[in-house]
Model the fold of this input.
Amino acid sequence: MIINRGNADAGKMDETALFGRRAGLLNRRSFLVGSAAGIGALGLAGCATSDGISLAYAEQIYGPVPDEKFPIPAVDVSKVDQKYYRRIVRFDSKEEPGTIVVDPKNYYVYRVEGDGSATRYGANVGRAGFLWSGDAYVGRKGEWPIWTPPKEMIQRQPEAAKYARGMPGGLDNPLGARALYLYQNGAYTLYTLYASSIPETIGTNLTSGCVGLLSQDMIDLYSRTPVKTKVVVLPA
Done:
Protein backbone atom coordinates (compact mmCIF):
# COMPACT_ATOMS: atom_id res chain seq x y z
CA MET A 1 0.00 0.00 0.00
CA ILE A 2 1.42 3.38 -1.01
CA ILE A 3 -0.26 5.32 1.76
CA ASN A 4 1.47 5.54 5.10
CA ARG A 5 -1.31 5.80 7.66
CA GLY A 6 1.06 6.73 10.49
CA ASN A 7 -1.24 5.33 13.21
CA ALA A 8 -4.61 3.69 13.60
CA ASP A 9 -6.46 6.96 13.20
CA ALA A 10 -4.65 8.32 10.15
CA GLY A 11 -6.86 8.98 7.15
CA LYS A 12 -9.82 10.01 9.25
CA MET A 13 -10.70 13.64 9.69
CA ASP A 14 -9.69 15.22 12.97
CA GLU A 15 -12.05 13.82 15.59
CA THR A 16 -13.47 17.06 16.84
CA ALA A 17 -13.72 18.30 13.25
CA LEU A 18 -16.09 15.46 12.51
CA PHE A 19 -19.03 17.03 14.31
CA GLY A 20 -21.27 19.80 13.03
CA ARG A 21 -21.30 23.18 14.63
CA ARG A 22 -24.88 22.67 15.72
CA ALA A 23 -24.77 18.93 16.41
CA GLY A 24 -24.59 19.57 20.16
CA LEU A 25 -21.43 17.52 20.70
CA LEU A 26 -18.45 19.71 19.95
CA ASN A 27 -17.94 23.23 18.69
CA ARG A 28 -16.53 22.30 15.28
CA ARG A 29 -15.93 25.83 14.13
CA SER A 30 -13.90 26.95 17.12
CA PHE A 31 -11.73 23.85 16.97
CA LEU A 32 -11.09 23.94 13.24
CA VAL A 33 -10.33 27.63 13.13
CA GLY A 34 -8.21 27.73 16.29
CA SER A 35 -4.96 29.56 15.84
CA ALA A 36 -5.41 29.45 12.07
CA ALA A 37 -8.01 32.20 12.24
CA GLY A 38 -5.42 34.84 12.90
CA ILE A 39 -3.43 34.04 9.78
CA GLY A 40 -6.22 32.79 7.58
CA ALA A 41 -8.52 35.78 7.66
CA LEU A 42 -7.04 38.37 5.33
CA GLY A 43 -9.05 41.36 4.20
CA LEU A 44 -9.34 42.42 0.58
CA ALA A 45 -8.46 46.00 -0.23
CA GLY A 46 -9.90 47.86 -3.19
CA CYS A 47 -11.89 46.24 -5.97
CA ALA A 48 -9.29 43.81 -7.29
CA THR A 49 -6.66 41.48 -5.88
CA SER A 50 -2.97 41.79 -6.68
CA ASP A 51 -3.24 39.28 -9.52
CA GLY A 52 -6.26 40.87 -11.13
CA ILE A 53 -9.10 38.78 -9.71
CA SER A 54 -11.86 41.18 -8.76
CA LEU A 55 -13.72 41.04 -5.51
CA ALA A 56 -16.94 40.95 -7.53
CA TYR A 57 -15.71 37.82 -9.33
CA ALA A 58 -14.76 36.13 -6.07
CA GLU A 59 -18.13 36.95 -4.58
CA GLN A 60 -19.81 35.55 -7.68
CA ILE A 61 -18.11 32.15 -7.74
CA TYR A 62 -18.39 31.83 -3.96
CA GLY A 63 -21.93 33.14 -3.75
CA PRO A 64 -24.90 31.26 -2.25
CA VAL A 65 -26.10 28.04 -3.84
CA PRO A 66 -29.83 28.11 -3.08
CA ASP A 67 -30.89 25.21 -5.31
CA GLU A 68 -29.01 22.54 -3.37
CA LYS A 69 -30.85 19.99 -1.22
CA PHE A 70 -29.51 22.00 1.70
CA PRO A 71 -29.04 25.60 0.49
CA ILE A 72 -25.41 26.66 0.83
CA PRO A 73 -24.66 30.19 2.07
CA ALA A 74 -22.16 32.50 0.42
CA VAL A 75 -18.52 32.30 1.47
CA ASP A 76 -17.13 35.30 3.33
CA VAL A 77 -14.30 35.76 0.84
CA SER A 78 -12.54 38.22 3.14
CA LYS A 79 -11.63 35.19 5.27
CA VAL A 80 -9.82 33.42 2.41
CA ASP A 81 -6.36 34.44 1.24
CA GLN A 82 -6.83 35.62 -2.34
CA LYS A 83 -4.21 33.17 -3.60
CA TYR A 84 -6.60 30.33 -2.79
CA TYR A 85 -9.42 31.57 -5.02
CA ARG A 86 -10.35 29.20 -7.82
CA ARG A 87 -8.67 30.06 -11.11
CA ILE A 88 -7.11 28.65 -14.27
CA VAL A 89 -3.31 28.56 -14.00
CA ARG A 90 -0.38 27.35 -16.05
CA PHE A 91 0.36 23.77 -15.04
CA ASP A 92 2.78 21.62 -16.98
CA SER A 93 2.01 17.97 -16.33
CA LYS A 94 2.32 14.62 -18.04
CA GLU A 95 -0.96 13.53 -16.45
CA GLU A 96 -4.06 13.07 -18.57
CA PRO A 97 -6.71 15.82 -18.60
CA GLY A 98 -9.12 15.31 -15.74
CA THR A 99 -6.46 13.97 -13.36
CA ILE A 100 -6.57 15.48 -9.87
CA VAL A 101 -3.25 16.52 -8.35
CA VAL A 102 -3.10 17.36 -4.64
CA ASP A 103 -0.24 19.60 -3.51
CA PRO A 104 -0.42 19.57 0.31
CA LYS A 105 2.75 21.60 0.72
CA ASN A 106 1.13 24.60 -0.94
CA TYR A 107 -2.51 23.86 -0.03
CA TYR A 108 -3.70 23.42 -3.61
CA VAL A 109 -5.74 20.91 -5.54
CA TYR A 110 -5.40 20.92 -9.33
CA ARG A 111 -7.64 19.50 -12.02
CA VAL A 112 -5.48 19.00 -15.11
CA GLU A 113 -7.16 20.63 -18.12
CA GLY A 114 -4.50 19.84 -20.71
CA ASP A 115 -2.58 22.26 -22.95
CA GLY A 116 -0.40 23.21 -20.02
CA SER A 117 -3.20 24.49 -17.79
CA ALA A 118 -5.21 23.39 -14.78
CA THR A 119 -8.04 24.59 -12.59
CA ARG A 120 -6.55 25.33 -9.19
CA TYR A 121 -8.45 25.28 -5.91
CA GLY A 122 -7.32 26.26 -2.42
CA ALA A 123 -7.51 23.50 0.19
CA ASN A 124 -6.96 22.44 3.76
CA VAL A 125 -4.86 19.33 4.25
CA GLY A 126 -3.60 16.84 6.83
CA ARG A 127 -1.81 18.00 9.93
CA ALA A 128 1.66 16.90 10.99
CA GLY A 129 1.90 13.14 11.27
CA PHE A 130 -1.02 12.49 8.95
CA LEU A 131 0.33 13.63 5.59
CA TRP A 132 0.67 11.02 2.87
CA SER A 133 1.54 10.79 -0.79
CA GLY A 134 1.07 8.44 -3.70
CA ASP A 135 -1.35 7.54 -6.49
CA ALA A 136 -4.99 6.68 -5.95
CA TYR A 137 -8.26 6.99 -7.83
CA VAL A 138 -11.82 8.08 -7.15
CA GLY A 139 -13.54 4.84 -6.17
CA ARG A 140 -16.92 6.37 -5.41
CA LYS A 141 -18.64 9.73 -5.07
CA GLY A 142 -21.26 11.12 -2.72
CA GLU A 143 -23.68 14.06 -2.74
CA TRP A 144 -24.55 15.19 0.78
CA PRO A 145 -22.94 11.96 2.00
CA ILE A 146 -23.58 10.18 5.26
CA TRP A 147 -20.70 10.31 7.73
CA THR A 148 -20.05 7.34 10.02
CA PRO A 149 -17.56 7.77 12.89
CA PRO A 150 -14.88 5.08 13.06
CA LYS A 151 -15.06 2.68 15.97
CA GLU A 152 -11.79 4.03 17.39
CA MET A 153 -13.38 7.44 17.70
CA ILE A 154 -16.48 6.06 19.40
CA GLN A 155 -14.24 4.34 21.95
CA ARG A 156 -12.59 7.65 22.80
CA GLN A 157 -15.72 9.76 22.55
CA PRO A 158 -18.77 7.73 23.59
CA GLU A 159 -21.08 10.59 22.66
CA ALA A 160 -20.26 9.85 19.03
CA ALA A 161 -22.04 6.51 19.35
CA LYS A 162 -25.31 8.20 18.38
CA TYR A 163 -23.89 8.38 14.84
CA ALA A 164 -22.62 4.80 14.76
CA ARG A 165 -25.15 4.07 12.01
CA GLY A 166 -24.33 7.26 10.19
CA MET A 167 -24.84 11.01 10.45
CA PRO A 168 -27.29 12.20 7.78
CA GLY A 169 -26.10 14.58 5.11
CA GLY A 170 -26.54 18.28 5.74
CA LEU A 171 -24.75 21.53 6.43
CA ASP A 172 -23.53 20.24 9.80
CA ASN A 173 -22.18 16.99 8.37
CA PRO A 174 -18.35 17.12 8.34
CA LEU A 175 -18.19 15.88 4.73
CA GLY A 176 -20.41 18.71 3.52
CA ALA A 177 -22.09 18.86 0.15
CA ARG A 178 -19.85 16.50 -1.81
CA ALA A 179 -17.19 13.86 -1.26
CA LEU A 180 -14.75 11.99 -3.48
CA TYR A 181 -13.51 8.80 -1.86
CA LEU A 182 -9.97 7.71 -2.71
CA TYR A 183 -9.20 4.07 -3.44
CA GLN A 184 -6.15 1.94 -4.15
CA ASN A 185 -6.30 -1.58 -5.57
CA GLY A 186 -10.04 -1.79 -5.02
CA ALA A 187 -9.93 -0.78 -1.34
CA TYR A 188 -11.01 2.49 0.27
CA THR A 189 -7.95 4.23 1.68
CA LEU A 190 -9.94 6.14 4.35
CA TYR A 191 -8.88 9.37 2.64
CA THR A 192 -11.43 11.71 1.12
CA LEU A 193 -11.77 15.00 -0.71
CA TYR A 194 -14.66 16.79 0.96
CA ALA A 195 -16.54 20.11 1.07
CA SER A 196 -15.68 22.58 3.82
CA SER A 197 -18.02 25.37 4.93
CA ILE A 198 -15.38 27.12 7.05
CA PRO A 199 -13.31 29.53 4.91
CA GLU A 200 -10.74 30.14 7.64
CA THR A 201 -9.49 26.58 7.28
CA ILE A 202 -8.32 26.94 3.68
CA GLY A 203 -4.53 27.06 3.65
CA THR A 204 -4.16 25.23 6.97
CA ASN A 205 -3.26 21.76 8.27
CA LEU A 206 -6.10 20.42 10.36
CA THR A 207 -7.30 16.98 9.24
CA SER A 208 -5.98 13.47 9.63
CA GLY A 209 -5.24 13.21 5.94
CA CYS A 210 -8.47 14.27 4.24
CA VAL A 211 -8.44 17.25 1.89
CA GLY A 212 -11.11 19.96 2.09
CA LEU A 213 -12.17 22.48 -0.55
CA LEU A 214 -14.69 25.27 -0.13
CA SER A 215 -18.17 23.93 -0.83
CA GLN A 216 -18.52 25.87 -4.08
CA ASP A 217 -15.14 24.62 -5.28
CA MET A 218 -15.89 21.05 -4.30
CA ILE A 219 -19.19 21.12 -6.18
CA ASP A 220 -17.33 22.38 -9.26
CA LEU A 221 -14.64 19.68 -9.02
CA TYR A 222 -17.16 16.95 -8.22
CA SER A 223 -19.27 17.77 -11.27
CA ARG A 224 -16.27 17.24 -13.55
CA THR A 225 -14.80 14.17 -11.87
CA PRO A 226 -16.10 10.71 -12.83
CA VAL A 227 -15.45 7.56 -10.85
CA LYS A 228 -12.06 6.01 -11.71
CA THR A 229 -10.40 9.43 -12.10
CA LYS A 230 -6.72 9.26 -11.18
CA VAL A 231 -5.60 11.22 -8.12
CA VAL A 232 -1.95 12.05 -7.49
CA VAL A 233 -0.98 13.24 -4.01
CA LEU A 234 2.41 14.94 -3.99
CA PRO A 235 4.82 14.79 -1.04
CA ALA A 236 4.37 17.61 1.46
Summary: Residues 215-223 form the longest helix (9 residues). The chain has five helices and eleven strands.
